[in-house]
Write a sequence for this structure.
């Protein structure tokens, strides 16, 4: 399986972690270059997943939600 | 808690409030890039199983990119969560917890890599994949 989502970007290094409350499942954006994660709260109601994918592709995750 | 299965995909998300995942193109295992270093963007989906006694307690899943030498190729990413039993959970059954979403990382060389999954500090699963050289003229 050849995967098309490749972009040329320089590496960066950072790390962040926070807890989250009780839930049945989790949609999360992971940036394994910067070490950051972002929990997405309403992925099926809007473009949240696509926007998060663009953010991590740019190495630009700005938040990690812990609500709900 | 244990990993029942885990895969890379072209797209994956979890439906809020249920545990149902939308997954497109599960089983992605080769990424093509004309040059390195390269930023790889993909999606991850995994399903966890746990006994009732582990519900409503905090768990930690750690994602680590491992390089061609199987050593960490980036910082580990910790995600803490507290699984809640589904209202339709039947006593005696293992409960489900689903995790999915976009994932991005940088590779410095072509070759074999993997995404390591640890649960509360204990290795639980590994998702292997390969980054292959793709001719610059290819789509």
């Amino acid at each position: 399986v050849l995967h098309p989502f490749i972009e040329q970007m320089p590496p960066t290094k950072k790390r962040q972690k926070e807890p989250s409350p009780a839930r049945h499942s989790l949609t999360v954006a992971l940036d394994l270059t910067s070490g950051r994660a972002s929990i997405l709260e309403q992925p099926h109601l809007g473009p949240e997943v696509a926007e998060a994918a663009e953010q991590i592709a740019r190495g630009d995750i700005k938040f990690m939600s812990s609500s709900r | 808690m244990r990993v029942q299965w885990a895969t890379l995909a072209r797209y994956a998300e979890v439906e809020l409030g249920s545990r149902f995942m939308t997954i497109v193109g599960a089983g992605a295992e080769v990424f093509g890039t004309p040059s390195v270093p390269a930023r790889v963007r993909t999606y991850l989906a995994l399903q966890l199983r746990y006994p009732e006694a582990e519900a409503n307690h905090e768990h930690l899943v750690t994602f680590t990119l491992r390089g061609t030498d199987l050593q960490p190729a980036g910082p580990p990413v910790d995600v803490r969560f507290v699984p809640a039993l589904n209202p339709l959970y039947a006593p005696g059954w293992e409960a489900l917890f689903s995790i999915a979403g976009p994932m991005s990382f940088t590779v410095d060389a072509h070759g074999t890599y993997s995404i390591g999954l640890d649960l509360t500090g204990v290795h639980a699963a590994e998702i292997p994949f390969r980054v292959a050289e793709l001719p610059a003229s290819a789509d």
